[in-house]
Amino acid sequence: MDYVARAITMDGFVRIYAANTTELVAEAAKIHGCSATAAAALGRTLTATAMIGAMIKDEDTSVTVQIDGGGSIGKICTVTDGSAFVRGYCINPLADLPTKANGHLDVGGIVGTDGHLGIIKDYGMKEPYVGHVELVSGEIAEDFTKYFAESEQTPSAVGLGVLVDKDLSIKSAGGYIIQLLPGATEEHIEDIEKSLAAFGSVTEAIEKGMTPEEIAESLMSDHSMFFYDNVDTGYFCPCSKERMERALIAIGKKDLQEIIDTDGHAELKCHFCRRSFDFSKEQLTEILARIK
Ligand SMILES: [Zn+2]
Predict the structure, then answer these.
(1) How many angstroms separate the alpha carbon of residue 244 from the centre of ligand 1?
(2) How many A from CA of 237 to the centre of ligand 1?
(3) Among 202, 188, 224, 59, which Cα is nearest to 140's?
(4) What is the CA radius of gyration of the chain?
(5) What architecture is the 3-235 domain classified under in CATH?
(6) 255 alpha carbon – ligand 1 mean position (Å)
(7) CA-CA to 103 of 20 to 30 Å: which in 30, 110, 125, 286?
(8) What CATH code would you report for 241-291?
(9) How many Cα neighbours within 13 Å face the side chain of 258?
(10) Could you tell me which of 73, 47, 117, 91 has the C-alpha nearest to residue 271?
(11) Where are the domains of the chain?
């Protein structure tokens, strides 16, 4: 089972989240039939979203992340509802590019940099909190780093990785978010920079069999840490025929009547899990009657 480890340094100045999301990203790539590069782009975004979910961990709060950089993958959208379980999609999962000279997938190339990363936190009451930043590189981790610094005033280091095999299976996926809390000193920053330089990539660490706790420890090796309970994560879509009915009700009487008159039935497909739900003429008429 994939999970997020959460820890804080004993002095209380640095918080860290580290996650193994290999199964989660494999599930997402399979559902959407992603190219290698799209699997990395969507997988990195899902991994960050899972860690943000583990940060908030409040059943009344949902978090939606939207990245739209004008590249061939189109918009990427990920969601978590009150936990670290996530779902997501991208407009064009087949978007792909040759690997870069260093052998890395060209995630920034398909995401683009002409646009924003936006996060909507809906606390289930009042107005949702909306924050967004211009994309830095479209490589996702740097873009989240900028988001935390500018939109949440929390200096952070974000690492996200998805390693895709030749047969498009996911070899490893995961990430970390290190955050400086008020009172952190220059020394904390230097310690983190030193560990990050020595650490290498998160996908290599996971491939070597390191657990999220071990990744967190290795990133903060100069400090003793307190670990909170781990938070389970995975790919989960809560859609159902009832939810789809609500979507049909939301389109309104006039349009629903038009569907009944022209097509005579409706097939609604969920963006997140690609399940489809069929509504017969009788069912549509019954829903229409309920709106009246
Ligand atoms: Zn669904």
Answers:
(1) 10
(2) 5
(3) 202
(4) 21
(5) 3-Layer(bab) Sandwich (3.55)
(6) 23
(7) 30
(8) 3.90.1280.10
(9) 6
(10) 91
(11) 3-235, 241-291
Token pair of 21 as six digits: 């999301």
**Over the chain (292 residues), what is each successive 10-residue block's mean pLDDT?**
96 96 98 98 98 92 97 98 95 97 95 97 89 97 97 96 96 97 93 92 95 95 92 96 89 89 90 94 91 76
Tokens of 192: 């983190």
Q: Which residue has the tokens 């978010």?
A: 177
pTM over 0.85: yes
User: Are the C-beta atoms of 231 and 57 separated by less than 8 Å?
Assistant: yes
Ligand 1 centre to CA of 240 (Å) is 7
What pLDDT, on the 0 to 100 scale, is given for residue 290? 86
- Token output for 29: 């790539």
Cα 218 to middle of ligand 1, angstroms: 37
What pLDDT shows up at residue 251?
Answer: 85
Residue 17, classified by CB atoms within 10 Å of its CB into exposed (0-12), middle (13-18) or buried (19+), is: buried
Strand, coil or helix: 222: coil
Interval between CA 269 and ligand 1 midpoint (Å): 8
